[in-house]
Amino acid sequence: MTPYTIEAIFIYSMVAVFIGTLFAYLYKEVKKGGDEE
Fold first, then answer.
1. What is the DSSP string of 11-34?
2. What is the pLDDT of residue 20?
3. What is the pLDDT of residue 36?
4. CB-facing half-sphere around the CA of 21: CA atoms within 13 A
5. Taking the C-alpha atoms of 26, 27, 31 and 32 in order, what is their torsion angle to the nearest 10 degrees?
6. Along the 37 residues of the chain, how does pLDDT read in single tens digits?
7. 1 DSSP assignment
8. Within a 10 A sphere around the Cβ of 26, how many other Cβ atoms?
9. Which pLDDT does position 21 carry in this prediction?
């Protein structure tokens, strides 16, 4: 593996975590606003 590959994997993992957090936040907001329990 070249340093570029390691860097790319690191960037992809960071993006994946960011997107995952964003979707979790949006989903929670939709659930909270959609149906009050």
1. HHHHHHHHHHHHHHHHHHHHHHHH
2. 97
3. 59
4. 6
5. -40
6. 677 899 999 999 999 999 999 999 999 988 887 665 5
7. -
8. 10
9. 97
The residue to which tokens 């606003």 are assigned:
33
The whole-number pLDDT of residue 2 equals: 79
**Which residue type occupies 31?**
K
- In the structure encoding, which two tokens stand for residue 37, read together? 């329990």
Q: Is 15 left (phi over 0), alpha (psi -120 to 50) or beta?
A: alpha
Q: Classify 5 as helix, strand or coil.
A: helix
SS3 (DSSP) at 9:
helix
